């Protein structure tokens, strides 16, 4: 689907979608439990992949109630799946449920779409090998399809922290139901560390203890998952909010207000600070979970995205519309996502008239004297690239057509309805 966005203003109040990261974890934690009801979940292409995996391991997922998902779990003992598990486009699903597969003696085959089958899984496969399990890449290139099993019952692993934090999340979630637990020793600095904080928070809400150590993380074995009252509530998603807040700061006619914005472990709430530092007029009422932002003259800043990789596309768009230089640093791991997002944003914003330079771990956007103009840009089948380019389209002269825009279904299925609802000129 191609979507065309014309230069236009936005205003109004909108609710942030539920968090993708919390939803994945809550559904899988409910799978590791006897069961649980996950309230206000994100139902999207990616979280459906995690639901499929829980079902494949012997759980059941009931979506008959629109605002909650009732999961009957496999209670720490995953069954051998009848078929291959298709994780589609979801890195989180593939990493988290690969560690689940390692718990059973038999083998599970995991695969995904073209993008997911090109993303790195090697360090996690190696970690499962260190724990005595079997974890192979069928093409012997550290990428899916994967064949995983071997009845891992705990141990110690050494693993790099600078490729994906999802490996650590996977090992901690599975480690709790092993016999002896898992100690994770990081061999490099951990990137995306707030995502492990999210994991620790969800584990704690499900009655599971895991903690940070001097050189990594540890989780004791023999634990049982089960949230208090059998229920779990998913908070709003700050990565998704970043597009709404960016459009308010760039194209707000009147203020744009975003609700469901309560403080949480999400590193991507840093978007509020980024906008503030760029000069946006915004207010975060943390008590009521509401952020209000007005159209503002923005200036370029330097931002490190070591902890917030998913904000890079949004910040690149903000930088293209801001005055001065925006330097996004510590971004190498942003190249391992659904696409290489450093190159994708550099190339697509350039088509819209921005001046952008990339190095291996930086993206520099020269906002001075840039007048963004409409263009046909490639959404790269990557939800965050699509949404960031759509926001840029609001302030570009003329029409911007984003190709493959249906892929917003990965994390923000009604993104274009929300955009239209706020008054943007959007043709589908
Ligand atoms: O654990 C998670 O929910 C996520 C972790 C991050 O990935 P990395 O840890 O691979 O950087 C992030 O980019 C992804 O969108 C979601
Ligand atoms: C990288 C992302 O997700 P995942 O790793 O789960 O594919 C994302 O949502 O930006």
Automatic annotation (TrEMBL):
SUPFAM superfamilies xref list: EPT/RTPC-like
Subcellular location: Cytoplasm
Domain Enolpyruvate transferase residues, every copy: 8-419
Pfam families in alphabetical order: EPSP_synthase
InterPro entries: Enolpyruvate_Tfrase_dom, Enolpyruvate_Tfrase_sf, EPSP_synthase, EPSP_synthase_CS, RNA3'P_cycl/enolpyr_Trfase_a/b
Listed name of the protein: 3-phosphoshikimate 1-carboxyvinyltransferase
Binding site residues for phosphoenolpyruvate: 20, 91, 119, 166, 341, 384
Location (main, coarse): cytoplasm
Subunit and partners: Monomer.
Annotated 3-phosphoshikimate binding sites: 20-21, 25, 164-166, 192, 310, 337
Gene: aroA
Domain of life: Archaea
Any one cellular-component term (Gene Ontology): cytoplasm
Keyword Cytoplasm: yes
EC number annotated for this UniProt entry: 2.5.1.19
Reactions that this protein is recorded to catalyse: 3-phosphoshikimate + phosphoenolpyruvate = 5-O-(1-carboxyvinyl)-3-phosphoshikimate + phosphate
Family indicated by similarity: Belongs to the EPSP synthase family.
Active site (record annotation): 310 (proton acceptor)
Originating species: Haloarcula pellucida
Keywords: Amino-acid biosynthesis, Aromatic amino acid biosynthesis, Cytoplasm, Transferase
Molecular function, one GO term: 3-phosphoshikimate 1-carboxyvinyltransferase activity
GO biological process: amino acid biosynthetic process; aromatic amino acid family biosynthetic process; chorismate biosynthetic process
Function: Catalyzes the transfer of the enolpyruvyl moiety of phosphoenolpyruvate (PEP) to the 5-hydroxyl of shikimate-3-phosphate (S3P) to produce enolpyruvyl shikimate-3-phosphate and inorganic phosphate.
Pathway linked to the protein: Metabolic intermediate biosynthesis; chorismate biosynthesis; chorismate from D-erythrose 4-phosphate and phosphoenolpyruvate: step 6/7
């Amino acid at each position: 689907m191609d979507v065309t966005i014309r230069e236009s203003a936005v205003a109004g109040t909108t609710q942030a979608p539920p968090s993708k990261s919390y939803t994945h974890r809550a559904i899988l934690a409910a799978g590791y439990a006897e069961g649980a009801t996950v309230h206000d979940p994100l139902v999207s292409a990616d979280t459906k992949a995690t639901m499929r995996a829980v079902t494949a391991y012997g759980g059941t997922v009931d979506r008959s109630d629109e605002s909650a998902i009732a999961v009957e779990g496999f209670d720490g003992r995953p069954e051998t799946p009848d078929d291959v598990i298709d994780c589609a486009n979801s890195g989180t699903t593939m990493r988290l449920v690969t560690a689940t597969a390692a718990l059973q003696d038999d083998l599970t085959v995991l695969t995904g779409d073209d993008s997911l089958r090109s993303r790195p899984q090697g360090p996690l496969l190696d970690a499962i090998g260190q724990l005595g399990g079997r974890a192979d890449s069928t093409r012997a290139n550290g990428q899916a399809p994967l064949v995983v099993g071997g009845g891992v019952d705990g141990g110690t692993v050494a693993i790099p922290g600078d490729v994906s934090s999802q490996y650590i999340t996977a090992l901690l979630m599975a480690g709790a139901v092993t016999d002896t637990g898992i100690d994770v020793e990081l061999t490099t600095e951990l990137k995306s560390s707030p995502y492990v904080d999210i994991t620790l928070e969800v584990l704690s809400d499900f009655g599971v203890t895991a903690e940070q150590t001097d050189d990594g993380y540890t989780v004791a074995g023999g634990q049982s998952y089960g949230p208090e009252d059998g229920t779990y509530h998913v908070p709003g998603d700050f990565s998704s909010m970043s597009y709404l807040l960016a459009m308010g700061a760039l194209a707000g006619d009147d203020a744009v207000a975003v609700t469901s914005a309560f403080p949480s472990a999400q590193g991507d709430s840093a978007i509020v600070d980024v906008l503030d530092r760029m000069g946006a007029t915004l207010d975060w009422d943390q008590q009521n979970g509401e952020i209000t932002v007005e159209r503002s003259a923005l200036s370029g800043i330097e931002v490190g995205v070591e902890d917030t990789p998913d904000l890079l596309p949004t910040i690149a768009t903000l930088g293209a519309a801001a005055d001065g230089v925006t330097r996004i640093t510590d971004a190498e791991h942003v190249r391992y996502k659904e696409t290489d997002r450093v190159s994708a944003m550099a190339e697509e914003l350039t088509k819209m008239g921005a001046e952008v330079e990339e190095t291996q771990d930086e993206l520099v956007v020269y906002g001075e004297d840039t007048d963004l103009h409409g263009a046909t840009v490639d959404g790269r089948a990557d939800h965050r690239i699509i949404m960031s380019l759509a926001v840029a389209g609001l302030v570009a002269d003329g029409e911007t057509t984003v190709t493959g825009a249906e892929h917003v279904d990965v994390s923000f299925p009604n993104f274009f309805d929300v955009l239209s609802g706020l008054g943007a000129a959007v043709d589908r």
